[in-house]
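Posting for a labmate who doesn't have an account.
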Amino acid sequence: MFRLRTLMLRFLLPYLSGLAVAFGVTVTSALAATSGTPPDTPPDRATSRFGAYLAAGHAGSTRDLDAAVVYLKAALAADPASVDLLQRAFIAALVGGQVADAVSLARRLADVHPENPMANLTLAIAAFRASDFDDADLALATLQDNRIGRVVRPLLTAWMTWAQGDADVALAVLTSPTDDPAERRLRTASVAMMHAIGGRLDQAIAGFVSVAEQQGALVLRNTRHLGAAYEVSGDRRKAEALYRSFLAEFPSTRLLNSALARVVEGSPAKLVVETPTEAVAEILFDIARVIDHRREPEVALMLGQLAAWLRPTFPAAHLLIGDLMGTLYDPKHANEAYRKIGDDTDYGWAADLRRAEHLARHDRGDEAETLLRNMAEDDPTASAPLIELGNPLRRDSHFQDAVEAYDSAFSSNPSPHV
């Protein structure tokens, strides 16, 4: 909460000082106007520039992202020349997953601040999505040579080139030397995905194996890529061995259950990524996943939203967005992201556990208990729902109820897994 209040002060004070002079009010009296709950719709724009900005700040302090976006847009409509408001409205829209609005705001922002990195990345992604490769290339060219720009530019350039039919040039971009291990791993993964989409499965498998070696451990996304490549190539034995190896190392996960069941049953398989657009979504997700979420959660969330916009049926991205939303904002935003996962049995189960956790943490324990007990009934061998049920009971000092939940968990499965 301290961090959130500090961010809100940083958010409000620079603009408040200028507005206070313009409107003849002090910062103290202006902040007093933020008490109470902001209305559902913005006030009249002729008198609302100051009030809308303060309402946006109030919404942010109460972690209501939707209201913050509404009021920032209202403030911007009343003061369209404000670059500061334009940037804040763009960021809020992108963080909130209103990507179409964020693209429109990014265009305006790039006109007045042509080196804004996130605006240019957003425009590049939008142009790539529309197969407008000339505009995408222009946006990429203006990306600053900062950490994300340095990583993203060659990857997107390569995929644009590949999508236009020049695979040799694309591969040359990705195999150029780099001293950064993270950049090297991302480039290796992109080369492997290109080979997989192009039907060169032996080279794709070699690439995904190289990624695993660079990671130094089994990582879920790459395990999915490698296993699917094995399956599509017809080597189901290696796919099954890989999945079982991962599950042996991470017995608490269910995120490979469907893949293992598919390979055991001999059901048809497909690659994790089948188009350049899906590959770029995968890259954005991968970068978002490895960013330090304690220090840069908003950056990770923006990249995750762009990934999900490129590929709406992307359960892993929606799970990441939900986790970050639950940390930064009201749990309703997290649960909206989790619901987008839909019927995916693996990620849907993980999302339901997180939904229950958010509900319990925000005084909606009855809903959390119902959800967890339904999950336990659906799979009596899974102990995680009952363990999750016991945790808030223990935190609230309902120790006997917590003991009963834990006992049920371990009696249903002496070797618990989620």
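Reply:
Got it, the structure tokens are right above this. The mean pLDDT is 80.
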